[in-house]
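This is your field. Have a critical look at both lines of this record:
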Amino acid sequence: MSLHPRIAEITARIQARSQDRRAAYLERTAATAAAYPPTSGLSCANFAHAIAALDPVEKTRRRGQAANLAIVTAYNDMLSAHQPYGRYPDLIKAAAARAGGVAQVAGGVPAMCDGITQGQPGMELSLFSRDVIAMATAIALSHNTFDAALMLGICDKIVPGLLIGALQFGHLPVIFVPAGPMSTGLANAEKSRIRQLYATGQVSREALLDAEARSYHGAGTCTFYGTANSNQMLMEIMGLHLPGAAFVPPNSALRDALTRRAAARALAITARGRDYTPISQVIDERAIVNGIVGLVATGGSTNHTIHLVAIAAAAGILINWDDFDDIAAVTPLLARIYPNGSADINHFHAAGGMGFVIGQLLDAGLVHEDVATVAGGGLSAYRRDPALIAVEGAESEVEWRAGATASLDDTVLRGREAPFAATGGLRLLQGNLGRGVMKTSAVAAEHRRVKAPALVFDSQADLVAAHRQGALQRDFVAVLRFQGPRANGMPELHSLTPILSAAQDAGFQVALVTDGRMSGASGKVPTVIHVSPEVDAGGPLGRVRDGDVIEVDAEQGVLRALVDAAAWQARADAPPQARSRDQDGGLGRALFGLFRAHALPAEQGGSSFGT
């Protein structure tokens, strides 16, 4: 199937917009590869330090110039998604040895869980942890003793941070190695119901805790389609996973075989061999477009309207929310995974998963096939599914077979000819309140247009207090300000979802407009997030007053205050209401003042690195 003309047009404009920066990135990458070839530039003392802790066989292999793999790991055993990574280094080292190479843990990066910090002060560190991870990745690879790298990370900011850091070493091949989702627990719809009952005082905290514990109950990623699982989808469709690796369960024989194969494949694509595939070739404008298509086709996390922008910028590519909106307009919605439906990621995988989705998008001409990938063979290689094959006297190996050509459950996954919706699950809204995005795939059509009086809040705590006082039993648009990167690090606001959902279920017109984030778990309440510019940077949300009628229209892409133009302009210099947000800098927040001071707007990726 030839490429869809609109996708071709959008790709071309991104290429034109990025031409100078992309050329500079590739030139810098080539210069680095020439000036700093791995290991050969090290002095004898440098090299001796690098191999000092290897066993004698590994030392001999390294002195014989065997290729060396860097393992950059986000392992910790407090996060369920990252706990399985504890045993990966041994698997990788053994596989590298069999392939004639060496592998070393080059460094660790932090991994925090937004599910733990939701509604807590620690959430104010979350977005900028991505930048810390990127820098930690650069430190891990800075020793210049590695021919390729394996990235062990899976959750919200970890994968984007690892990728941004890895792109600074564009001359190295890089493969991302996932850990897989936990097994299915309490049904997502039931979990959501109990959360709402607790928010309205109808069940006890003990009942809520029991429901949450049955939902999050074992090793692996959370099973809803939030940012962690959206990360895995992106790494697959952008060619940085082995085909079909994204959603294989942790600690399974197939998972281990894929991990071993990733090590062997990384050694096969170094500059020492014939299949040299550096990450700078994999992540280009076409791969970024493929990632956006995958995101909107599956109803993925809104966080990637920030993260993908920052990832692209790290590769010298400039994208914006117009690109997301225009791609969504021609991309059908193929998946229904919670919060966009009742199924979880394990159901999606069983119904055909990534192989089916990529195949459908290829057949529709909506993604670029002619891209470099770590697997080789263009994106068509990702139509395949991995399977175990027995090897006599050795560990099982992986072979790839043709993936599903028809959905195995059309309540979860559908083909391009009968999608859940004709357009993707994301929309850009704009007007006199700025520019923001809404995850429309989870919002019923009857709730996508709201026109109601504003209730203005300067903190999550203020909104929660209004709920407890009964002030939300009415039609309203909650305008929550001072939640952007510069104000307080842009914490996710998902803890507000049960309150807003309960008001909507009571029959009121409800929406949320904020310069903050709502996360990959954005649900059924129409929510315009990432509104830019943020209030701390002079954004127009600072002009809104209680009672102003706010129009939120996801069908027409409209976000505006219905205030007389002259009166609206007269407010331009009016100081915002006093903030009630916590300013004490406790729980580590004081250390992130430099990040907040230098943060770019959300539409430019929210990064503290600059452009």
In short: The chain has a mean pLDDT of 92.
